[in-house]
Design brief:
single chain; three-stranded antiparallel beta sheet; globular
Length: 234
């Protein structure tokens, strides 16, 4: 787990050299997947504890997983030490310095909550194979025969040497994307200190009143595109 955690925060799964191409949607094949709660669209769900709400798999970068850990107070040490992941707007320079620190901090130093979250991160087998080849590791038997040609319509995931199924929903280009961007900017103008994840959740909750669920982008997509959303003019 130490090696996987290092690769996650060092951005190794995001390297162009091991990108899986010609398979769509690209993020599902190339990025780690984590199952988290979806935006609440009704009063009953919003009243439920976070861990009891409906969940889906979303594609995550090292930065966005660090943000999830930060929001759940699951990073080593004190929360104020990791304000780079909650401050808006983000400083690319600060994040660039902070992620390598997370990569180098021993896995044992992370709290139990972080172990639980990181232990649930999944990766497509074909991506895991590409990364292991890139790092020069010997392939286990279950990865030796994995190829792009044998890949199915959905990624086959690895989770502690087991397989599971699941794929994130929603990408930019959904019918509601423009409206979601407008709502994010309106919320940010009214509450500049609101966290990125909260902006995404609230904007999607409001957009759900105007659009069908299938027309909405995923919360993870909105979070990852937050910088460009906030930079765009209404």
């Amino acid at each position: 787990m130490e090696t996987f955690k290092y690769a996650l925060f060092a951005g190794e799964f995001e390297r162009e050299e091991i990108a899986i191409r010609d398979l769509k949607p690209a993020d599902d094949w190339n990025l780690p997947l984590l199952r988290i709660e979806v935006p609440a669209t009704d009063t009953i769900v919003r009243r439920l504890p976070l861990e009891s709400r409906p969940q889906e798999y979303f594609a995550f970068t090292g930065v966005s997983i660090a943000e999830v850990l930060s929001e759940r107070d699951a990073l080593p040490g004190k929360a104020e030490n990791w304000s780079a992941f909650t401050a808006l707007p983000h400083s690319a320079g600060i994040l660039a310095d902070t992620l390598p620190d997370l990569a180098r901090i021993p896995y044992a130093a992370f709290p139990a909550k972080a172990h639980e979250i990181l232990g649930n991160v999944m990766l497509a087998k074909i991506k895991l194979r590409a990364w292991m080849v890139f790092r020069g590791y010997e392939l286990p038997s279950f990865l030796r025969m994995v190829t792009v040609k044998k890949a199915t319509a959905k990624p086959t995931l690895t989770h502690n040497d087991a397989t599971s199924a699941g794929a994130p929903r929603g990408r930019p280009g959904k019918a509601a994307w423009g409206r979601v961007g407008e709502l994010v900017r309106e919320l940010h103008a009214a509450q500049p200190k609101m966290k990125r994840s909260a902006l995404a959740f609230e904007a999607l909750k409001m957009a759900a009143k105007e659009f069908d669920e299938k027309e909405l982008p995923s919360v993870e997509t909105v979070i990852r595109k937050m910088k460009s959303i906030l930079a765009a003019k209404s």
